[in-house]
Amino acid sequence: MIRVRDLTVSYGTNSILQNVTFDVNAGECLVVTGSSGCGKSTLAHVLTGLIPHSIPAQVTGSVQIAEMDAFASSVDTIAQKVGIVFQNPRTHLFHLRVEDEVAFGPRNLGMREEEVNARVDRALKAVGLADMRNSKPATLSGGQIQRLAIAAALAMNPKVLVLDEPTASLDVPGTQNVISALETLKRQYGLTIVLIEHRLAEVRRLADHVLILDEGRIAAQGHFDDVLRNPTTLKQYGLRRPTAETLTDWSRLLIPNGHHPDHQEPLLDLQNITAGYDGHPIIHNIDLKIYSGEFVALVGDNGTGKSTLALAAAGLLKPIHGNVTVNGTARPRPGLDIALLFQNPADQLFTDSVDEEVAFGPRNYRRFDAEIHEHTLASADLHQLCARRPFTLSIGQQQRTALAACIALRPALVILDEPTLGQDWRHLQQLMDCLVRLNQQGTAILLITHDYKLVHHYARRVILVEKGRLILDGKIAPASSSRIHVEGFVHATS
Predict the structure, then answer these.
(1) Owning domain of residue 68
(2) Run of H or E including 371
(3) Is the peptide bond before 52 cis (omega within 30 degrees of 0)?
(4) Which of 84, 107, 382, 467 is the least buried, fewest Cβ under 10 Å from its Cβ?
(5) Do residues 143 and 266 both lie within one domain?
(6) Which residues of 144-174 are buried (b: 16+ CB within 10 A; e: fewer)?
(7) Same domain, 298 and 231
(8) Is-contact 423 454, C-beta < 8 A?
(9) CATH number for the domain that contains residue 175
(10) What is the pLDDT of residues 320-355, one digit of tens each?
(11) pTM of the predicted protein model
(12) Is there a domain that residue 432 lies in?
């Protein structure tokens, strides 16, 4: 179904892929992994014909996919047999209703409306969005948008489906829905899948083979379990150990805590906050206090209001009612009192180089310190990228740039909204360890994530949100007889 031989891709003098060769048989799932910036997304663009037809690049070698020559066939011809879900799913979406978004591809093929409706129904059900068919895509959470993009690709009934980090923004039910849907399509319809992922535990039951890229070259390939059972390989290429256990609902992993600093004023104080969009509340009557030096995780399913809470806390979304104060003031200084890393890093990158991006805040406040600047670049592994324009970087590299810019001023509170997008485990650990050092110096951290391993490894307090309401303020449950593996770490729950 897929035959790639000696594929080399370059942008000018910058070589991205070098002599890549592999095969994928019909009905198989190939997982492509490796550190951020190693060429994974470029490979996806080649397989779908976007490179070189829509994205200019120098390409040599050969790519056969779904009985087509990817270099000789047009993008619209390839699109009828090869679907793609991009790393940033928002780039897919432009309709005003979920249903119309999923129907767009089949309708453009001139199908009868009965067939279009049947495909829409199947695709929405497969990703767990059947009850949101009349919703506006603009009102969906990041994880729901991810599932909508997958549904739009599935509605085309492709022979090959290429997915670039499809689980990065998904909660546990959403991840399970998507993987189960892909399993069914693979088993019943012989769908061939190329899955670009850092979160290997989630895709283990779907994967047949794995291909590890390192600086544009194939570092290892073979049967998924055979390659990834080698701890040396995992460590060398910054990969997580894939575990077989099913992830567990947060409510089973947490117990109430209720112990917060005595006789200390809160750094962030949310008092009876209700907030949303166009007068429609997403979060309701939230009371939350975060203190200097705390490392807090905010968890919950997609669409529960985590990002809305973050925007309200950062002063970027005016509450419908309630009060927000940071360090006792309702008008915090952006970047100094509070910094927010957006879910989509492209939303906060705007200078001409990585170096300028990281230095912008300190220079704007006239607090630039060359030593701190160098340390910030090093903590995000950005030294080799300093001269690059941010929008020429991979999503993972953009995420590291945006986070470095957030922490460059050493703010009192850092809020991170899903910082795992595009990050291999090695770079993610490096960034988190930098945050731990800041936290030890008094900076408060509010981490919004679906990533169990990050929460278990770093957070000392966990806040669970359901349907826009704070239902539990606690911590990881202590050891008991029930053991749960969390992406390579073993933890216990009640």
Answers:
(1) 2-236
(2) helix 370-379
(3) yes
(4) 467
(5) no
(6) bbbbbbbbbbbbbbbbbbbbbbbbbbbbbeb
(7) no
(8) no
(9) 3.40.50.300
(10) 999 999 988 888 888 899 999 998 888 899 999 999
(11) 0.74
(12) yes
